[in-house]
Amino acid sequence: MSTPETVTDTIASFCTRTSFSDLPAKVIAKTKIHILDAIGAAFAGSEREETKNLIHLAEQWGGRPESTLITSKSKIPMVIASLVNGEMSHDTGLDDVYPNAAMHPAAVVLPAALAAAEREAVDGPAFITAIVLGYEIMLRMGDGLSARALYNRGFHPTGICGPFGSTVAAGKILGLSQQKLVRALGISASQVGGLMEFLSDGSSVKRLHPARASQSGVLSVIFSQCGHTGPSTIIEGRDGVFKAYAESSNYSDLLRDLGKELKIMQTGLKLYPCTRYIEPSLNIVSDMQKRDRIDHREIEEITIHIFDAAFPLVVDPLEEKQRPRNAFSGQFSLPFCVAAALVRGRLTKDEFAVQVLSDKEIIGLAKKIKILPDAQMSEAFPRLWPSRVTIKTKRGASLVGDVITAKGDPQNFPSLPEVIDKFSSLAKPVFPKARVEEIIKTVLDLEKVKNMSSLGDLLRK
After folding, report:
1. Helix (H, G, I), strand (E, B), or coil: what is residue 92?
2. Bridge-based pairing state of the strands 299-306 and 387-393
């Protein structure tokens, strides 16, 4: 009597048999956009002091020159490259997002895939395929576990689901058999982690969640190659992932229509360096500024209606959110971000500098913001991320704006020129214009690349 196929068997079978030729043209085109966007996010992150320290530490560690350390002069071991590049990719909060499960796949999957692809000298099509499959499994894990369920128990969805995606991406590039990929996925589940307690004081540890998730996938593949095993029932088993993290035995969302509608097509981009929960309100404020030419000094009161899932992350406790203690707290403060955007006419990483966080005009305006849950919006989330902003002026005017899908969402995806503009703005402080243009051209023609080291070389100084 044959052994019943486990969920992990099904996943591994799908991933090992899927090839570049199976990917629709629209999937290939969108994947290249996500790759370019992720590299831009890494460039932005490389400028932060904590990341500079981590890059310097990795350079000091040295080791076999296998994989690019982005923005460095160095190539370092694959295992370390996946960690450091993952940290810088998530550092400023500009990496992509999967709205349905509130996860950031690029900062997990791309560093693992790039590190493995350079070491193995694979071509562009193999790299693209690994990225697509890494996204697919990480995001399906998010669908199955549910972001709401994970958040309710204090877990960070990206950290919990990420190792499955990076394991698939690295395993695909390193040519794992179906059996070894099953083992690697079983191993990766013992390396998941990431708690939301960073919200209590604005700790920067959240930036390490994708980094460790990326590295964990690479390590899981290596452990499997070395002969270590992991349970094939790790997802649905008595003490598996669903029991441990969601207390649910319903994994139908994980396997439903596997391979028919690839999840990277349902992934969006971010336009602001803050959590996605804030971006819908920022879209409204930006549009209102252009339409109504709002003078922040004339504002009497601001009311924001938003879905209830946002409150633990970006609203409560309101008094603390109105005056964030550091940059990371600011990135998770709806009142601060909206106030800063109104006062300064924009929200970039510069708005989280120490002097801006203590700006009296911004703090004063943040204290005029009232945030209320909306039942219909809560019902629509996470399929939609709606928001409504009402601004009352001292002269008695009432200005109202709302969004159903924020700019960057899959249903409201940026154009290619907009993506290139975002990338260029993040890359130009790091590399000269000619190099920036060469990176753009290489990524957009990635299926023609014969050896992924050629892209890696462009990402080093």
Report:
1. coil
2. antiparallel
Alpha-carbon gap, residue 80 to 59, rounded angstroms: 10
Tokens matching residue 226? 């070395």
Q: Distance between CA 243 and CA 247 in Å, rounded? A: 4
Q: Is the pTM higher than 0.90?
A: yes
State how far the Cα of 183 lies from the Cα of 199, in Å rounded to an integer.
Answer: 34
Contacts of 283 (CB under 8 A, 6+ apart): 387, 403, 406, 407
Handedness of CA 136, 178, 183, 218 (dihedral sign): negative
DSSP H or E segment with residue 89: helix 78-90
Report cis status (omega within 30 of 0) of the bond before 382. yes
Question: Is it true that the peptide bond before 24 is cis, omega within 30 degrees of 0?
Answer: no
Please state, in angstroms and rounded to a whole number, the distance separating the CA atoms of residues 122 and 452: 6
CA-wise closest residue to 113 among 105, 330, 400: 105
φ, ψ of residue 71 to 5 degrees: the values are 70, 0
Question: Which residue spans within 202-326 are E strands per DSSP?
Answer: 299-306
Cα separation, 410 vs 174, in Å, equals 31
Per-residue model confidence as pLDDT tens digits over 239-255: 999 999 986 656 777 89
Sole residue written with tokens 């994708």: 210
b (16+ CB within 10 A) / e for 296-316? beebeebbbbbbbbbbebbbe
The tens digit of pLDDT for each residue in 322-340 reads 999 999 999 999 999 999 9
Q: How many residues does the chain have?
A: 461
Give the position of tokens 């704006």: 401
Contact 353, 49 (CB under 8 A): no
**Phi, psi (deg, nearest 5) at residue 389:** -120, 130
**Is 339 exposed, middle or buried, given 0-12, 13-18 or 19+ CB atoms closer than 10 A?**
buried
Domains of the chain: 7-271+424-458 (1.10.4100.10), 279-406 (3.30.1330.120)
Query: Residue 371 — φ and ψ, nearest 5°?
Result: -125, 125
Give the model confidence (pLDDT) of 398-428 as tens digits: 999 999 988 999 999 999 999 999 999 999 9
For the chain, the farthest-separated pair of C-alpha atoms sits apart, in whole angstroms, at 80
* H, E, C per residue of 372-441: EECHHHHHHCCCCCCEEEEEEECCCCEEEEEECCCCCCHHHCCCHHHHHHHHHHHHCCCCCHHHHHHHHH
